[in-house]
Amino acid sequence: xxxxxxxxxxxxxxxxxxxxxxxxxxxxxxxxxxxxxxxxxxxxxxxxxxxxxxxxxxxxxxxxxxxxxxxxxxxxxxxxxxxxxxxxxxxxxxxxxxxxxxxxxxxxxxxxxxxxxxxxxxxxxxxxxxxxxxxxxxxxxxxxxxxx
Length: 148
What we know:
Elements: H1 3-8, H2 16-21, E1 40-46, E2 50-56, E3 60-67, E4 74-80, H3 81-84, E5 85-86, E6 89-90, E7 92-96, E8 101-106, E9 114-117, H4 126-131, E10 143-145
Parallel strand pairs: 1-10
Antiparallel strand pairs: 1-2, 2-3, 3-4, 5-6, 7-8, 8-9
């Protein structure tokens, strides 16, 4: 964290576990059907002040926005997994926005634009990364996909 960030009052970005645990604050989270230990995430956006993720519990997909100017990560939306995926296929489109970003338009979230940083997917296929969220999870490890 830079001195400017400290002076500006920005907090550090949340950890992987904090991002995944954010879904428990959702009104839609069902503790009886969703197992946080099986959750996975894909980071969509990275700027100096904000990171955005899709988190899957195997039952629902949650969009989490981690804005350093806010107290904690926020849930932008959540949908049942079958509303977002048809099998392993995303029900939506990735559309170029500018040199550094795409717009991810998901059919289940009409009127909502989900920005995607192109550099996060320079070394991994976007569709493969997103398709991993459609799977039921087993085990205790979080499947965190982020291009290096």
